[in-house]
Specification:
The protein has 152 residues and is of the alpha+beta class. It has helices at 5-10, 19-26, 110-119, 121-151, and strands spanning 29-34, 39-41, 49-55, 58-64, 68-75, 80-82, 96-99, 103-109.
Amino acid sequence: METFEPLLADQPFFRGIDPSHLKDLAACASREKYSAGQFLCRAEEEATAFFLILQGRVSIEIFSARRGPVILQTMGEGDVLGWLGFQEKPFHWHWDARAVDLTRVLTLEVGCIKAKCEADHDLGYEIMKRFVQSLAKAFRERSLQLTDMFQA
């Protein structure tokens, strides 16, 4: 049986996290691979997964009736993709994520992460700190991309 603790520890999102937390999170992880053109998620689907990109590239897209798919951002190795909705209602994707080339990811099941964080509030606080930083980075990058798009 494969253990995901070393892979998680090697990802920028989890670097430096307490080893006991890695063990808990590893129970939520699985490996997946996506071929070029395959969707990791689609807009309006329930966000049940949180992805750590191990290899490859993923385009974050919105669909425009006038322009078709519009790429907001391209993510790569070491990036995180996903929502950790800690509210009671399920969270849904607001955009599509498509593999640009062969992409390998570690997938963390959101319900499992939520349960681990509820059981251990120290873990929950650590995940929330990291997640907020990740959201801020994604917001900055997508804002810059949108600014470039509309200046053209």
